[in-house]
Amino acid sequence: MNGAVAPEQQEVEFAGQVRGMFDRIAGVYDVMNTAMTAGLHHAWRERAADRAELGPGDVALDACCGTGDFAFALARHVTYRNGDHRDRRLATAERRHRIAA
Fold this sequence. Notes:
The protein has one domain (7-100). The chain contains five helices and two strands, in the order αααβαβα. Strands 1-2 form a two-stranded parallel sheet. Helix 3 crosses helix 4. The longest helix has 19 residues, at 7-25. The chain is mostly helical. Strand 1 (59-62), helix 4 (69-75) and strand 2 (79-82) form a beta-alpha-beta unit. The protein is globular, with a radius of gyration of 17 Å.
């Protein structure tokens, strides 16, 4: 065998690396987002929630909810569900939601 890694194994390893990276930055993710966008991401998120044209009785799924900022914007319009993989950012989102409620 030449030491090559099967593509499936590479995908599993890469997914673990991505999860690990997001776990490492979870505590500073929102601050980094604000710095990288000069704060514009707040307006972008509100605009996206408004443009979703969802209303009472509608349900929204944020498949990659991160720390929950978009979820909070959507929650002002609809019933909200998150679908992010279980990582520290999701725990941050859940903690923020409990504090905001």
